[in-house]
Amino acid sequence: MYGNDFPGADEGSATGLLDQVEAAEADLRAAAVRGLAASGSPGADSDLQEYFDAVIGADQKIEPRDWMPDSYRKTLIRQIAQHAHSEIIGMQPEGNWISRAPSLKRKAILLAKVQDEAGHGLYLYAAAETLGVTRDELVDLLFEGRQKYSSIFNYPTLTWADVGAIGWLVDGAAIVNQVPLCRCSYGPYARAMIRVCKEESFHQRQGYEILHTLSHGTPAQKAMAQDAIDRWWYPSLAMFGPPDADSTHSAQSMAWKIKRFSNDELRQRFVDMCVQQAEILGLGLPDPELRWNEQRQAHDFTQPDYTELMRVISGDGPCNRQRMDHRRRAHAEGAWVREAAAAYAAKQAARAEVAA
Ligand SMILES: [Fe+2]
Ligand SMILES: [Fe+2]
């Protein structure tokens, strides 16, 4: 994950996450040319469900032109939209520090990172649109509070070290969540996730590098880095969602191969990865119960406060209102840009028609 910048930082994850993304990409290409040898093409309507099941069973991709059960479509729209909203709202906590980055270099890196998140939102809205909704509809659902975004972005960024902690922990948790989505059964989502994950790995590295610099700086800088980790650790663990026992959508999503691992499995993977990386940083994780369990070959750790997670999801986090107000305002202020772009596209289309 970290290339050669920080030797040893990869050891927490058995196979490098980026290697997994590369492998998923290769499989995606192979699946595209392989075709579904077992079942051929669907014929009568009654065959549609059977064909869909066969495609899923054979680890092939469902594409926008294919028939799919309504509930599969709805689940994907909900999940991809929530993901897209998270990318866009997620620009705010770090955007807060662009004007106060400690150097020109840091500012340029952070600008690029925040801009990437806008791009992720764009890929994901586009992937959702292949399922028959428009971006406008999805944005409205967000504004009406009928669709959510990740609760992590409702926490404030109090110091520069928070930019490091977000990159390391929040983008890090996002990658652990998203690498398996590169193998999701819906083609446009899987393809979008491959590109997103490659960029997220840069985000995680830049955050880690910020923390590494701070932790090897003055005692005050090191303390600032530790304080940021202390505040972001449990909200990052909560990013994996409620424990498996309380997770409402999981079983069906696993059967459809949208989801490949359970919330608890992914959370465990993330904890195991972070322990080693924290050691290299020379910083601690704020959990006195954190220790290696020889029998499980994994770390025992304290679960995040799921009551708090539910409270933040339902709108009562430290920054929920601020985030939504800002998004509404930005959307309204950007109306002229959308109108101008639409007018330009219409003019180009009219010209092309005359020329044809
Ligand atoms: Fe992102
Ligand atoms: Fe990111």
Question: How does this structure look, described?
Answer:
Its EC number is 1.14.13.149. One of its GO terms (cellular component) is cytosol. Pfam families: PaaA_PaaC. The protein has 356 residues and is mostly helical. 64% of the residues lie in helices and 2% in strands. The protein has a two-stranded antiparallel sheet with strand order 1-2. The model has no long low-confidence stretch (mean pLDDT 91). Bound molecules: fe (ii) ion (FE2) (2 copies). The site of one fe (ii) ion (FE2) has 5 residues, from helix 5 and helix 8. One fe (ii) ion binds next to helix 8.
Layout: helices, strands, pairs:
Elements: H1 17-34, H2 47-57, H3 70-89, H4 91-95, H5 104-129, H6 135-143, H7 161-178, H8 187-215, H9 219-238, H10 250-255, H11 263-281, E1 291-293, E2 298-300, H12 306-316, H13 320-333, H14 335-355
Helix pairs in contact: 1-8, 3-5, 5-8, 7-8, 7-9, 7-11
In short:
It is built from 14 helices and two strands.
Keywords:
356 residues; mainly alpha; two-stranded antiparallel ribbon; 2 strands; 64% helix; binds fe (ii) ion
Count, helices: 14
User: Kindly, what is the distance between the CA atoms of the first and last residues, rounded to a whole number of angstroms?
Assistant: 50 Å
For the largest sheet, list the strands in their spatial order. 1-2
Calculate Rg over CA atoms: 22 Å
Low-confidence stretches at least 5 residues in length (pLDDT < 50)?
none
In this entry the ligands are: fe (ii) ion
